[in-house]
Amino acid sequence: RDQQKSCTIQPLRMNCYKLWLEVPSHQGPVRSKPVYLSPMDYVQPHTPTNVRAVTQVGGVLRVTWKPPYLPVEGLQCQFRYHSLSVIEKWKVQSSVRVPGDEVMVPDMCQVYVVQVRCMHINGTGYWSDWTESVNSTTQNSRTPDRGPDFWRIR
């Protein structure tokens, strides 16, 4: 006998499914009580992509990303960060529903390590895996148009 312990539904729709287990017996098939479930309660989104982090003037770490395309109904995402030069605990930001967020950081010249993850907006299901780490870049300031020559790079 086949010892299959899982099933795959394809194509998977975002409806509510009614599932039950049916086993043959000598007295006819035996059927379990039905279970109702929504795939959104069990789905783990893919990780976000195209993560970018820029430390801006004024000590703002700006992080942007492209969220995964599913689930269509919406995602919440959060990022975490820590300084590259000082090994410390990750600082996790609150979830946002837009593909970017920012946080004040103590040193705008510091490089920060950033990761992002997402989950369904209603809080069911699972968080995606954290993205690969991305190092922040610092926003370049323009050199002045006037002033001593050493201010300008030629």
Could you characterize what this model shows?
Keywords: Glycoprotein, Membrane, Receptor, Signal, Transmembrane, Transmembrane helix. InterPro entries: FN3_dom, FN3_sf, Ig-like_fold, LEP-R_IGD. It is a single-pass type I membrane protein. It comes from Nothobranchius korthausae. Its main location: membrane. With 154 residues, this protein is mainly beta. The chain has a domain at 49-138: Immunoglobulins (Immunoglobulin-like). 0% of the residues lie in helices and 35% in strands. The protein has strands at residues 17-19, 22-23, 30-31, 35-37, 49-56, 60-66, 75-83, 91-92, 100-104, 112-120, 134-135, 137-138. The strands form 4 sheets. It has a 4-stranded mixed sheet, with no helix packed on it. The protein has a 4-stranded antiparallel sheet with strand order 8-7-10-11, with no helix packed on it. Strand 2 and strand 3 (30-31) form a beta hairpin. The protein is elongated, with a radius of gyration of 24 Å. The protein starts with 16 loop residues before the first strand and ends in a 16-residue tail after the last strand. The mean pLDDT is 87.
Helices and strands, with pairings:
Elements: E1 17-19, E2 22-23, E3 30-31, E4 35-37, E5 49-56, E6 60-66, E7 75-83, E8 91-92, E9 100-104, E10 112-120, E11 134-135, E12 137-138
Parallel strand pairs: 5-12
Antiparallel strand pairs: 1-4, 2-3, 5-6, 6-9, 7-8, 7-10, 10-11
Membrane topology: Single-pass type I membrane protein
GO molecular function, one term: cytokine receptor activity
Pfam families: ObR_Ig
